[in-house]
């Protein structure tokens, strides 16, 4: 019996559309055909378990072979198989309407939509025509007394279907899909190319996939097992398989939920460090162990893109546009669930082993802060396990730190002033001046800290942050106490004029202040507001104030009226006073690590002259 007919579709140009529309992703033909073979095999296994198939299962493998000379790729399985009637039902009648309209709708979308046409409309098998000029199906059903079915199509809407007997009949149940590779798809006749595709998409399929005599997949990856079955070594070994050149992970979360959606997977916390250029797209997304993509944006919150690992869910609509993905209820639930599980894991680690958690903070701090900045629900949980570290090396939670400095660092308006350094070594003089007053100083030198500081000021009631070198120590935390100046108003004016003339820089604004005699003779500061805008601009923030980052620095030069050097400058002649004023100013620059080049050379020479003169 041989039958000829037309494939039942509603447009005559379905195959050119498939080939053209999917061209940049044409390697997925192999994923689709192997997945179909796996499905057929699993269905037969299920029937056997239900007692509906009583024959011998035998070896259930999917085999992929390539014959370069004959220009053939063959995908073979020993699954359910199909009768001629089933081929007519499942292969010939493509439920596809409005193909042209669909392509028009999606052609402007991003590249990730290019394989959506297949899965969305049940066209997985027809992806074969992206690389083949002709496709054959040889199939024999598992049912008794059925004939071999042989279907052939050359990429047009015409097909042939017959039931060969004798030596042309298929001996065993199952299906062979034979692709006669087109002239423009030579790359897929290369064994190495096919192996790469199979490794990418089929590495964890639940049925053994054999390619050129070698099984290329693990049928039971660890995310399909229960955590109780696994050891730490299993998790770290799997991580090394996924990311061969990475450092071992810090810790991991094993996900396993079946209601109200299905989701399994393992998320690893890598060592991120303080780098803005962290590598994303390290989470691999699977559907029933078939690799889909490593672009998981929308499936997990953006800050979780820092994690590594695997997510597997049949409930994620993988074959629809990204705009639909964002609105999908299951995706939103998965997104929320993963966020909660990550927060719960961090909270558990913090409570269970605080010392160990503090040791890991340098690696996970950026991740936690990024999450707090980008996800309100995560912030609500993370505020209890986010840490800050002072310049003495001690860690605190946010609430612990407020309690720690509350007694000594409230200003006259009952606002808590948190002092911080971005470079404790370079700002040592300022840190020392603050700690001499009994104040504590935090170390906030991570790349996201300018944004983190801004968030904490919004969230924490009556708390402000001030960089330790943003003002003189007395003004950082203003109290009701006032220090009297030993200079008259006339002397203060003259001193201000002497310094302004000696410095001769329009961006250095001199003011004479009554400070402690123990404080430095000159303190140079960049106002907190200006400094913060510049810090945020450097890390890509600042909002509407980003222009501040491009403005020239405008510093305040606070001259200590009560320091002995002030009297020496005032009592010296004009030349000597100017030289001493410049020397005191340069000391202030040196304390800010701002004295460089020619100015530094002049300072060293001047110091030698003054030492010689004394």
**Radius of gyration computed on alpha carbons:** 36 Å
Low-confidence stretches: 95-103, 109-122, 543-547
- How can the largest sheet be summarized? 9 strands, mixed
At the fourth level of CATH, the homologous superfamily of the largest domain is Histidine kinase-like ATPase, C-terminal domain
Helix content: 25-40%
Shape: elongated
Keywords: ATP-binding, Chaperone, Nucleotide-binding
Protein name: Chaperone protein htpG
Pfam family, one: HATPase_c_3
Domain Histidine kinase/HSP90-like ATPase: 25-167
Architecture overview:
- 38% of the residues lie in helices and 19% in strands.
- The chain has 20 helices and 22 strands.
- It is α+β, with helices and mostly antiparallel strands.
- It has 4 domains: 2-215, Heat Shock Protein 90 (2-Layer Sandwich), CATH 3.30.565; 222-354, Ribosomal Protein S5, domain 2 (2-Layer Sandwich); 386-476, Rossmann fold, CATH 3.40.50.11260; 489-527 and 542-613, Four Helix Bundle (Hemerythrin (Met), subunit A).
- The strands form 4 sheets. Strands 1-6-5-4-7-3-2-8-9 form a 9-stranded mixed sheet, with helices on one face.
- Strand 4 (132-140) and strand 5 form a beta hairpin.
- InterPro entries: HATPase_C_sf, HATPase_dom, Heat_shock_protein_90_CS, HSP90_C, Hsp90_fam, Hsp90_N, Ribosomal_Su5_D2-typ_SF.
- Keywords: ATP-binding, Chaperone, Nucleotide-binding.
- Belongs to the heat shock protein 90 family.
- This is Chaperone protein htpG.
């Amino acid at each position: 019996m041989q039958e000829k007919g037309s494939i039942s579709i509603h447009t005559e140009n379905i195959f050119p559309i498939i080939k053209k529309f999917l061209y940049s992703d044409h390697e997925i033909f192999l994923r689709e055909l192997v997945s179909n073979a796996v499905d057929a095999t699993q269905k037969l296994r299920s029937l056997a378990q239900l007692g509906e198939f009583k024959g011998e299962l035998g070896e259930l493998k999917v085999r992929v072979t390539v014959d370069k000379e004959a220009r053939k790729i063959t995908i073979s399985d020993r699954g359910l198989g199909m009768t001629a009637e089933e081929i007519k039902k499942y292969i010939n009648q493509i439920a596809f309407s409005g193909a042209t309209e669909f392509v028009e709708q999606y052609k402007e979308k991003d590249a990730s939509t290019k394989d959506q046409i297949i899965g969305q409309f049940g066209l997985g098998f027809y992806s074969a025509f992206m690389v083949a000029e002709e496709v054959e199906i040889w199939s024999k059903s598992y049912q008794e007394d059925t004939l071999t079915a042989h279907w052939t199509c050359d990429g047009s809407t015409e097909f042939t279907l017959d039931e060969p007997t004798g030596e042309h009949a298929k001996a065993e149940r199952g299906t062979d899909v034979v692709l006669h590779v087109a002239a423009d798809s030579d790359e897929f006749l290369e064994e190495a190319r096919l192996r790469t595709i199979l490794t990418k998409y089929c590495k964890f399929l639940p049925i053994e996939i054999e390619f050129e005599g070698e099984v290329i997949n693990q049928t039971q990856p660890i995310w399909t097992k229960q955590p109780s079955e696994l050891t730490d070594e299993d998790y770290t070994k799997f991580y090394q398989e996924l990311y061969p050149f990475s450092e071992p992970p810090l810790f991991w979360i094993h996900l396993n939920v079946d209601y109200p959606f299905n989701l399994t997977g393992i998320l690893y916390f890598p060592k991120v460090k303080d780098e803005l250029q962290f590598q994303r797209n390290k989470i691999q997304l699977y559907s029933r162990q078939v690799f889909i993509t490593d672009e998981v944006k929308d499936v997990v919150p953006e800050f979780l893109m820092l994690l590594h690992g695997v997510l597997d869910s049949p409930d994620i609509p993988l074959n629809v546009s990204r705009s639909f993905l964002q609105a999908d209820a299951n995706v939103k639930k998965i997104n929320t669930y993963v966020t909660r599980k990550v927060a719960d894991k961090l909270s558990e680690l913090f409570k269970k082993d605080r010392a160990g958690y503090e040791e890991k903070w340098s690696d996970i701090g950026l991740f936690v802060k990024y999450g707090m900045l980008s996800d309100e629900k995560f912030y609500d949980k993370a505020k209890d396990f986010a840490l800050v570290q002072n310049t003495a090396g001690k860690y605190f939670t946010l609430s612990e730190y407020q309690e720690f400095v509350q007694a000594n660092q409230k200003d006259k308006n009952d606002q808590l002033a948190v002092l911080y350094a971005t470079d404790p070594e370079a700002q040592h003089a300022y840190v020392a001046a603050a700690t001499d007053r009994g104040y504590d100083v935090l170390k906030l030198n991570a790349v996201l800290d300018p944004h983190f500081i801004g968030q904490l000021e919004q969230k924490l009631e009556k708390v402000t942050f001030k960089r330790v070198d943003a003002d003189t120590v007395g003004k950082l935390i203003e109290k009701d106490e006032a220090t009297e100046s030993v200079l008259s108003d006339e002397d203060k004016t003259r001193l201000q004029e002497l310094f302004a003339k000696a410095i001769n820089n329009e961006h250095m604004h001199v003011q004479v202040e009554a400070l402690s005699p123990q404080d430095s003779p000159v303190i140079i500061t960049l106002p907190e507001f200006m400094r913060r805008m510049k810090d945020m601009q450097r890390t890509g923030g600042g909002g509407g104030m980003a222009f501040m980052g491009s403005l020239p620095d405008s510093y305040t030069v606070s001259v200590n009226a009560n320091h002995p050097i002030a009297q020496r400058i005032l009592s010296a002649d004009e030349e000597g006073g100017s030289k001493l004023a410049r020397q005191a100013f340069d000391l202030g620059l040196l304390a800010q690590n701002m004295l460089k080049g020619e100015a530094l050379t002049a300072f060293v020479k001047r110091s030698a002259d003054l030492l010689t003169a004394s």
